[in-house]
Amino acid sequence: MNMLREVNIIGKTILLIDDELNVREIVKFCLQDLAGWNVVTADSPLAGLQNAIHYSPDAIVLDISIRDVDSFQFMNKLRNNPETQAIPVVLLSAKARWLDSQILRQYQVAGVIPKPFNPVTLPAQVATLLGWDFTSLMD
Q1: What gap in Å lies between CA 136 and CA 34, rounded to an integer?
Q2: Please, is 60 exposed, middle or buried when counting C-beta atoms within 10 Å of its C-beta (0-12, 13-18, 19+)?
Q3: Does domain 13-130 have CATH number 3.40.50.720?
């Protein structure tokens, strides 16, 4: 088993927006160490919007359960900004059950990963939702 087999999507940059430090650390570790992606983090949608403009990530993983913040207001700002409107978004949420397909289409969401999630399969789930080829570094 070759632990460092080439990943087809190495070099991708993911912007992770989550207000929970523990969740950010786990998700960042999974996406970096299991997929080989570059991960930029933000602890709020405002910081996330600034990072999206600054880093031009290939995708955003957004926790829509962020306390005291309207994540859909963030999505509106993201989609209305020419510099960020085309960045695909994957939602990571404990509230996935109440998201209907109309909301997902309206905000051009690539998909939803419900919390709790399996850290080992998280990179493959993100890649699948984004339509990226994925081979784990652990294969």
Answers
A1: 6
A2: buried
A3: no
